[in-house]
Structures are given as structure tokens and as C-alpha cells.
Amino acid sequence: MSDKRPIREDLQATLDARRDLGPDYEAALVESFVERLDATIAARVRAELDMYGPGPRKVKNPGAAMIPIALGSMGIGIPLTAIAVGGAGPVGLVVAWLAIAVINVAAAAAIMRRG
What we know:
By secondary structure, this protein is mostly helical. It contains three helices and no strands.
């Protein structure tokens, strides 16, 4: 909770300044607050990444990582097939399954690169 206090105080100060200065300064005040918020988020992400150490973790068995993707594709593919055929006929069917195939190939390539 104490981590969130400074950003809340910054937001309150920005709102107070907007009330005091009027709408002419709104864009500058919002931009300033967003920059501080971005810095806070970046610091939290860096701290979180530092806890886990450097570099990406390797996938021990890349083939096993594809199982959930394949099962998910089948689970989504069945209702998507019905919707595509009902709405666009055979063309919809081809487009739907091409999209599923492209997603699976991209996922496999990403997993193989990590593994």
C-alpha cells in the first residue's frame, strides 16, 4: 500500500493544480502526471524482473509447450468453424482455419526460439 501512496499524492496534486490553474493547463498537467506514472511503472517492472534474475528462462521440452496451444486451437476451432460456415460459407471456413494455422505456426516458432 505504501508504494501506491506517492502516485496517489501525485494524482491529487495534479487535480488540485488543474482546479487552481484552470483548463488551459490541463494538457501539460496530464502529460506531467503520465510521465511520472510511466516512471513509476517502469521502476516496478524493473524491480520485478530483478527478482527473477537475468535473461529469459529456457523451455525444457518445447514440444510439451505446444500441447496447450494445440488443444486450445481445437477447442476454439470447433465453434469457430460453425460460425464461419454459417456466416460466410466455405470461404469463412478457409479463412478461419488459415488464421488458426498461422497462429499455431507463430507460437511454435516462438517456443522453438526460446527452447
